[in-house]
Amino acid sequence: MGKMTKPERSWAFYDWANSAYSIVVVTAIFPLYFKSAATEAGISATTSTAYWGYANSFATLIVSILAPLLGTIADFRGFKKRFFTFFASLGVIFTLLLAVVPNDQWLILLGFFVFTSVGFAGANIFYDAFLVDVTSEDRMNRISSNGFALGYIGSTIPFIISIAIIILAQQEIIPLSVGIASQIAFVITALWWGLFTIPMLKNVEQKYYVERVSNPVATSFKKLFTTLKNIKAYRALFLFLLAYFFYIDGVHTILTMSTAYGSDLGISASTLLIVLFLVQVVAAPFTIMFSKLGQKFSEKKMIFVAIIVYIIICIYAYFLKTAIDFWILAMLVATVQGGIQALSRSYFAKLIPKESSNEFFGFYNIFGKIAAIAGPTLMGVTAQLTGNTSSGVFSLIVLFVFGAFILWRVPNHVVFSAEQSAANQISR
């Protein structure tokens, strides 16, 4: 298929940039930092895990409300990169600000985390939509997977640096508290994210667009209404989105809640950080493997394989007792988390009209983000009611089962017809 072009490399490199945030702030260091702050404030472990879930849910609710309209506006010439730049900047700035909040102010920490999460998720709407601009349809699978693989590899660098600083602080080898060491990790993450976003800003341009009109907001509302009115024309596409709604909810919930879950099981912070580092290392080659298998057997079949593995993960988590069990669980997650996300993105990109990529990726993200409200909430409520975090993880199995059932009904071969594309055009 040849080497990646400069726009393809620059696009994929944004995964290298923002994945540092994903592991340091969403998954690893910040959840432990927050739980430590909450514990010092007298909040129980189960309750702080629930609050962490609620904060994730609130952030995704904000993005879900904004995504369809902003995505539709971004289909007009020149808007896509502006929106991408705004949200990426929002995420970077508030990640940097996490370092200046006193660690006893746990509510403010959660509030700033919400802003970072909105920035991260909002930028991803337009980043995902740029996939149609940087490559051809026959290369989407490879480029999407390369992005995720680069993200797993790149995120390990600031993560290793951050872990080293924290461990050295724990061992009193350097004259820093663990809290200050964690704050330094947030600064490193923000700078990494901002620096490696530059190639995306310089080399990626909106190739497919709709010409601007005098009132883009009103016209975008009209376009959204037209799309929803003609939803039957997009039956296969929205059927896939419904399946995605369920299974990606489980994926994101396991990702965002894993550190809090391990902490509740009594696994030490240093062990959790090492486990999460190895997850990143293992996930990169497995993401590429899923890409190759997706080309051979189809994206849909490989998404099914990943869902089955996640169902096994949920069952295994219920019986988890020891640190070794957690290691096994983490490695199972590493084998599928990149593949299922990369193949879902490329599969969806092939279904949509390129000139309306932002609008439809707005729907893609709203389905994913609204779903992500349910998962952490389901896990948090179940954990509170049962007093057992393992029961919360087990409850996620229903999301994967529903997702697999609906995905089974999506046609194996979906072609976006000219009639469907015409139904999506803006009335003028």
Describe the protein in words.
With 428 residues, the chain is mainly α. The chain has one domain (6-207, 214-423): Growth Hormone, Chain: A (Up-down Bundle), CATH 1.20.1250. The protein has 18 helices and no strands. The chain crosses the membrane at residues 12-34, 54-76, 83-101, 107-127, 148-168, 174-198, 233-255, 267-290, 302-320, 326-348, 360-379, 391-410. It is found in: Cell membrane.
CATH topology: Growth Hormone, Chain: A
CATH architecture: Up-down Bundle
Instruction: Provide mean pLDDT, rounded.
Output: 83
- Largest pleated sheet: none
**Terminal CA distance:** 40 Å
User: What is the CATH superfamily?
Assistant: MFS general substrate transporter like domains
**What level of helicity do the residues show?**
over 70%
**Overall 3D shape:** globular
Low-confidence stretches: 416-428
The H-and-E topology, N to C, reads as HHHHHHHHHHHHHHHHHH
Structural class: mainly alpha
Q: In DSSP terms, counting alpha (H) and pi (I) runs of 4 or more, how many helices?
A: 18
**In what range is the share of β-strand residues?**
under 5%
Give me the Rg, rounded: 21 Å
| CATH C-level category | Mainly Alpha
Number-wise, the strands total: 0
Number of domains: 1
GO molecular function, one term: transmembrane transporter activity
Subcellular location: Cell membrane
InterPro entries: Atg22-like, ATG22/LtaA_families, MFS_dom, MFS_trans_sf
Main location: membrane
